[in-house]
Design a protein that fits this description.
This protein is of the alpha/beta class and 395 residues long. The chain has two domains: 207 residues, NAD(P)-binding Rossmann-like Domain (Rossmann fold, 3-Layer(aba) Sandwich); 132 residues, 2-Layer Sandwich (Alpha-D-Glucose-1,6-Bisphosphate, Chain A, domain 4), CATH 3.30.530.20. Strands 3-2-1-4-5 form a five-stranded parallel beta sheet, with helices on both faces. A hairpin with a 6-residue loop joins strand 15 and strand 16. The longest helix is centred in the C-terminal third of the chain and has 26 residues. The termini are far apart. Bound molecules: NADP nicotinamide-adenine-dinucleotide phosphate.
Length: 395
Amino acid sequence: MLVLIAGITGFVGIPCARSAFARGLKVRGLARNINNLPEDVGKRLEGFETLSSPYDIAAMDRATKGVDAIICTFAGIPEMFMESQLLLIRAAERAGVKIFHATSWNYDWTLAPGSHELYDDMRGFAHHVALSSTIKPIYMFTGAIVEYYFKRSRYDWNPDTKTFSFHGPSTFPTRYTTTEDIGNYVLEAITAPDAADGGFVRVQSFEASPEDIVKAYNAAREGRTTAKLNCLGSLQDAEDKLTEGRARNGKGGWYNFIRSSLVNYTTVTRDIDAPIGQVWGLVADFGAEKAWYPGAKSVSLEGFGLGSVRTFNYVYPAGKNKGQEYIFSEELTEPDYPDMVAFGTTVLDSLGPNKTRFRWIAEGSPLPDEFMAVLREDLNERFDGLIVAIVNQLV
Ligand SMILES: NC(=O)c1ccc[n+]([C@@H]2O[C@H](COP(=O)([O-])OP(=O)(O)OC[C@H]3O[C@@H](n4cnc5c(N)ncnc54)[C@H](OP(=O)(O)O)[C@@H]3O)[C@@H](O)[C@H]2O)c1
């Protein structure tokens, strides 16, 4: 059996590929960049088609040719759910493919229409396909994906402070599924005798409440580190935040409120004349501030997490104090605003062999407008300066 995984470089696509290989199936990939695949997957592919844009019909036609089943693991963004996936299903119809697993793996979005902007899009896709296609897709509901909550989203689990944030009762269980289990469930679904009949599949790996999580973490660490709970409010509070977020951002600003009213503080963008590999080399070397700041003579770190102390030894690289040395230390202490969540994300996009777009995105809990303006100005200046300092190391 030859399986096409569309969006194979994503965090659901990769485990699906591994699960297919474990069953002895052949796998073809479709995604933007084959270099985003781990070696164990990339090397074993039957073939790979490059998607030049979310609307690349020619690549979809090449990718679907001769395959027995398609697993669409396109990203959870409206354009991909609705448009790319629809173009892919049309390509699948032309290629005569009957088995199609749609991108889904969320809570059950057949319930509560109007309560979640992205879920409405998924429901819209399913409805449109049911009306207009000969293909009957499989949709899978998994609850929360474990690795997403605990590795990718610092909003839910903060790995530095070991804090789990949530709304509602701390004893209320959530359904979780691991990506490895998703890979196995999906492969079971597409190889079942009635796979072409499609339908809704509901699965889970386990259920756990916020209290269960903290208890399990603390037991596993045997007292060496202690996890904490951070209740962000009641379920009614969560609903109120969503209503306020909708009123403030409108539908087009869904990203700002869909995840418990996380707002975008600022996005600093600069295009750099250097290959993405070189920029990544500096960014990924997070401990090496020496390389980021031209004036740094040495940087040292004692301890780890809360209580750790970082000491900088600087010499002014320019200006009236040029050549003068100074030393300062900073200690990581308990946050002053424990209910506030804030984090930054660095995104690099390759724009060409010698051009990279550098984006630094700051997001966090909503703030009063006057604080927001001050924070935005400060972040813009500091991160623009930081990107320039990084660029100067490279060009
Ligand atoms: N329940 C949960 O907790 C949870 C959590 C996360 C995701 N999900 C669901 O899982 C599914 C897959 O999401 P995912 O997190 O695996 O997605 P992902 O890792 O962000 O991306 C999946 C694929 O989409 C591609 N892609 C992303 N943006 C693109 C763009 N603008 N143009 C073209 N290709 C693009 C990625 O390519 P690159 O590798 O080049 O970026 C990758 O191949 C979605 O249905 C999502 O809703 C559920």
